[in-house]
Specification:
The protein is an alpha/beta fold. Helices cover about 35% and strands about 20% of the residues. Helix 1 packs across helix 2. The longest helix has 19 residues.
Length: about 450
């Protein structure tokens, strides 16, 4: 059987790769695996990010869950981190988010959470996959034991209240904040949170219609936000992705503040309060963050790409802060996954406490030039990446020229049909040239 799960659930073009049939099978197998030890009738939360195909997949997934006897609680359009938080608050046995995160609207995805609000480890995903070819062998209830669907009307309100509660003394009165909600799952809740905290909120791309999610907006397309922040004299801007588990910021001058810089600002603040001695990042993090941590005496662990791997390390070492350059930032005291709105609230609390503006704190970390280019590669050919002679030759030639604080990282995406080529060094023009050469070699060899 083809491997279904990537680095963040099962993803594909909705109704083509991620079909209603597959959603039903995932619901049935997932419910069986995640609720077989439940006490009483299992309860499963289901939410979505608002893209057009969400209703179709929700219906099919729900049917699969109900066929195992689960009570399914529909929470509607809410961010992924809301699911992680509310599972524990409501004492559900599992949760499912229907979302393709930052991907274009034609894609969709299904990701599971266990009763602790954690994304599933590889072992459980593999167990779910192994069951799908043998679903007819799973005993299914009948009569009064068949599952039913209920609503979860206070999910958004409860999540907003939780976010505000993480900063009990914070007031943002007088601060002008722009929010780009990517026409996604944060469109309603993000403005509510920052308005409750007293900010003057200006919201962009907050009218989802099912097809405009992530369309030239949000954390992957920040030009509109940058222009708005500068032209309207905002103090800063925050950009979320479609499902709200990422956040990138823009300072008052329109300069990017990425996940590495957010971790540096918040990490140093926690370090100074005696609450942190180690940050967890991924291999994609900028060498500037490595240098920053070394300068301030903060240890740093680096993991494989994916916020679940970051979280696994945080749990293993009992650490409070970790994340990715792309904007997944985990504050483990409060939630079990990357949470864009939470990261924004925590970042602003540091600014208020230090009485500094964002651009001032961002200057603490030197950012080394970094180039990231995606090579378009079909999913079924990614496995040839490490064995292709031409690609190996080009990569070896580049590596031979790398100096101190220069590096190259090549990895297949777990969520898209691309291979990501990242090169970091001191000469922007040179590393761009190297990256383009390697991308050309990959695409000519594997497409």
């Amino acid at each position: 059987m083809k491997k279904l799960f990537g680095t963040d659930g099962v993803r594909g073009v909705a109704n083509k790769e991620l079909t209603p049939k597959l959603a039903f099978e995932l619901g049935k197998a997932g419910a069986y695996v995640l609720t077989k030890n439940a006490t009483g009738t299992p309860k499963v939360m289901v939410a979505k990010d608002g893209r057009r195909s969400g209703d179709m997949l929700e219906a099919a997934l729900t049917a699969g869950l109900c066929s195992i006897g689960a009570i399914v609680y529909h929470c509607g359009v809410i961010p992924t981190p809301a699911v992680a938080y509310l599972i524990k608050k409501y004492k559900f046995d599992a949760g499912v988010m229907i979302s393709a995160s930052h991907n274009p609207m034609q894609d969709n995805g299904i990701k599971f959470f266990n009763a602790s609000g954690l994304k599933l480890p590889d072992s459980l995903e593999e167990e779910i996959e192994s069951i799908i070819p043998n679903l007819d062998d799973i005993p299914c209830p009948t009569g009064a034991d068949v599952g039913v669907v209920k609503s979860c009307p206070y999910a958004l309100e409860d999540y907003a209240s939780f976010l505000v509660s993480t900063v009990p003394s914070l007031r943002l009165d007088g601060m002008k904040v722009a929010l780009d909600c990517a026409n996604g799952a944060t469109s309603v809740v993000a403005p509510i949170v920052f308005e409750k905290l007293g900010a003057e909120v200006h919201t962009l791309h907050h009218r989802p219609n099912g097809i405009n999610i992530n369309a030239n907006c949000g954390s992957t397309h920040m030009d509109d936000l940058k222009k708005f922040v500068v032209s309207q004299s905002m103090d800063l801007g925050l950009a979320f992705d479609g499902d709200g588990d990422r956040m990138l910021a823009v300072d008052k001058n329109g300069q990017d503040i990425d996940g590495d810089m957010i971790m540096a600002i918040c990490g140093l603040d926690l370090y100074e309060q005696g609450q942190l001695d180690t940050i967890v990042a991924t291999v994609m993090s900028n060498q500037g963050l490595v240098a920053f941590c070394r300068k301030h005496g903060i240890a740093m662990h680096q993991t494989n790409v994916g916020d679940r791997y970051v979280l696994e390390k945080m749990i293993e070492e009992d650490l409070p802060l970790g994340g990715e350059q792309s904007g997944h930032v985990i504050f483990r005291e409060y939630n079990t996954t990357g949470d864009g709105i939470l990261a924004g609230v925590q970042l602003l609390s540091v600014l208020v406490r230090k009485k500094k503006q964002l651009h001032e704190l961002a200057q603490m970390m030197e950012v080394f030039p970094q180039v990231l280019i995606n090579a378009k590669v079909p999913n079924n050919r990614k496995g040839e990446l490490m064995t292709c002679p031409k690609i190996k030759k080009v990569q070896a030639g580049i590596e031979a020229q790398l100096g101190e604080y220069e590096r190259i990282l090549v990895r297949p995406s777990g969520t898209e049909p691309v291979v990501r080529v990242m090169i970091e060094g001191r000469d922007q023009a040179q590393i761009t040239k190297w990256a383009q050469e390697l991308v050309a070699a990959i695409e000519s060899s594997l497409t």
